[in-house]
Automatic annotation (TrEMBL):
Gene: LOC109275813
UniProt keyword annotation of Signal present: yes
Region (Disordered): 25-58
Keywords: Signal
Protein name stated in the entry: Platelet-derived growth factor receptor-like protein
Residue spans of biased composition, Basic residues class: 28-37
Organism, scientific name: Panthera pardus
Signal peptide range in chain numbering: 1-20
Classification via InterPro entries: Ig-like_dom, Ig-like_dom_sf, Ig-like_fold, Ig_sub, Ig_sub2, PDGFRL
Subunit structure: Forms a complex composed of PDGFRL, TNK2 and GRB2.
Amino acid sequence: MVSRACCWLSWCLLISVISAEVQEHGRTPKAQKKRGFKAASPGEVKPPGAPGGKKPEADLSQKTLQMEAAAPSLPASSILTLVLGRGRFQKVGDSLSLRAGDPLELRCRGKVVHWRVPVYLEEEGKERLRIKHFSRHSQLQLVNSTGADTGEYSCWAQHCQDGEGAEDEARQGKTFIFFTDPEELFVPTEDYYKVVQLHSHQPVLLPCQVTNPLAHVTLHREFPPEEVPVDGIDISFDVKKGFTIHRPRASLAGALFCLASLGGLRQISTKYMLIYIKYPSSSPKPTIQASATSVQLGENFSVTCTALGEPDIAVDFIWEHPGQKLGRPPYVSEWASVVRQEGQVQQEAGSTLHVEEARAGDSGIYTCRATNLQGTGTATTHVRVTRSSHVSPAPS
Ligand SMILES: *[C@@H]1O[C@H](CO)[C@@H](O)[C@H](O)[C@H]1NC(C)=O
Ligand SMILES: *[C@@H]1O[C@H](CO)[C@@H](O)[C@H](O)[C@H]1NC(C)=O
């Protein structure tokens, strides 16, 4: 009997635990649902304006979320517009053409707006340029425009007032504006010629910019007079920038210029004096070796540093050695020779530091620094100078 009553009791207990669990589980999703769609359930309709009637607020926050999510996919130029006249706006694209002399008015949407204009305009055209900030946008006005005002105009709007907003919070708009001048096909520059260094491993720009995107532009050598082929791979042309030499070579050195033609007009650009500088692809990685790691007092020894690299690249060696403290003058010999390794022609450059009649002070670390136009590489070794009396005789 007793065991039966006990069994019944425990069965009752089990049932109540299960039902409590079910209630608990049932409640949790309900609570979550309530938070998300507070005013959405039909059973909870409240008169507008009643306390707890959160419908308008919930909708608003949802809208804000949607807008934020959509913002990154908007075109970058969407905050920048061109003002055509009173209340007439035009979204700007990648580039646009205006006539030199025409006024320009741009508008950038945002609370805190910064503008960037071509360098020439920033330096020389301040009195023709006016920027005004309003509560929700900023306005850029340019009067008496010239072909030299051709270039990129951009603005960016920050969300935060104090300028501490992260860069990715800012939105940007930009466009390239050509101010076409029927008499000047090239954006004028101050210099009659410009020296351009051609480094063997670095693309270089010949910045002959045109004022009219319709101009036909070619690249020419002054002497012998010939057109330089532009294949889009080794050399390419961008109407907003000029010619880019992607793979500089020694044969391109000399005087080059750009030629623009449009209608019956043909004009040449500033001359570019191209100087070719053979540039190493990497800094030297020297190796160091002493003629002996342990020498006796009074003996001669040497330390040699070598660097393998591309031919015709100058390598300079600098030594640091313990004898410097003794006032020992450096006795160094240097060489460079062409070697073939795995079918490749390479240059081995080297430097040998000779130490005569070793003294105790010559013991220590020997450092060689090998430098080319790309940088410096370092190698070290250790030489020990011992007294002959300390050297145990070799076993016979
Ligand atoms: C623009 O050009 C006109 C006519 O040449 C001149 O009177 C005016 O001062 C110029 N404005 C500015 C801001 O340079
Ligand atoms: C060390 O070098 C000097 C100069 O080359 C030479 O005169 C001298 O004999 C050498 N000494 C020894 C121990 O080899």
